[in-house]
Write a structure and sequence with these properties.
Largest sheet: 7 strands, antiparallel
Bound molecules: flavin-adenine dinucleotide
Radius of gyration: 16 Å
Strand content: over 45%
Structural class: mainly beta
Shape: globular
Number of strands: 12
Order of helices and strands: HEEEEEHEHEEEEEE
Distance between the termini: 34 Å
Length: 158
């Protein structure tokens, strides 16, 4: 199995899009990520997977905390900025629980690092949720490497 086939298969899993943020010595850093999941309710834990070569990897290790901003449909530009696809954009971050977050996101989650697990060329950071904030909006979604509108076609409740 080659890398392309693996990536194509993983791209068939439709996800939302987040921006992970942290701060070290007053310097804010953000990174787009869709490898995000809920892990546990008691205690409340979430998980992100960060490439070892990403700057974010060492910064989370240093700060011991991070925030997750789940992006709304109108925030595709934020996803592109923090994936390095739009360069040199000045961003005004909001603050939540003393962490930088992306303003107007669907959900913001403030976490302390609970645990880390090396996994191949990535590290899994388990975050203990300190607090979260929700607002009503439509989500930004990604499928097969493309941003998608989620049409409001509810077939049944989960
Ligand atoms: P950089 O590449 O240096 O930073 C990322 C970009 O954010 C740069 O353009 C930088 O200028 C900008 N930026 C950072 N901080 C600021 C700031 N304070 N103000 C303004 N701009 C700033 N990678 C993973 O490891 N895990 C994933 O789950 C994952 N999912 C992804 C999902 C999508 C949809 C996309 C498009 C990419 C994903 N990536 C993921 C790839 C990851 O977003 C990029 O490789 C990213 O460039 C890695 O960031 P970095 O920490 O190395 O920092």
């Amino acid at each position: 199995m080659d890398d392309r086939m693996f990536k194509a298969a993983m791209g068939k899993f439709a996800t939302g899009v987040t921006v992970i943020t942290t701060e070290v010595d007053g310097q804010v850093h953000g990174m787009t990520a869709n490898a995000f999941m809920s892990v546990s309710i008691d205690p409340k834990l979430i998980l992100i997977s960060v490439a070892d070569k990403a700057k974010m990897h060492d910064l989370i290790k240093q700060s011991g905390k991070f925030a997750v901003s789940i992006l709304a449909e109108h925030q595709q530009e934020m996803s592109m900025v923090f994936a390095g696809q739009i360069k040199d954009r000045e961003i005004a971050f909001a603050r939540f629980e003393n962490l930088p977050v992306i303003e107007d996101s669907l959900v913001t989650i403030a976490c302390d690092v609970h645990d880390t697990h090396p996994a191949g060329d990535h590290t899994l950071f388990v975050g203990a949720v300190q607090n979260l904030h929700l607002q009503e909006d439509e989500p930004l979604a990604i499928y097969e490497g493309k941003y998608k509108d989620l049409q409001d076609k509810v077939t049944s409740e989960v």
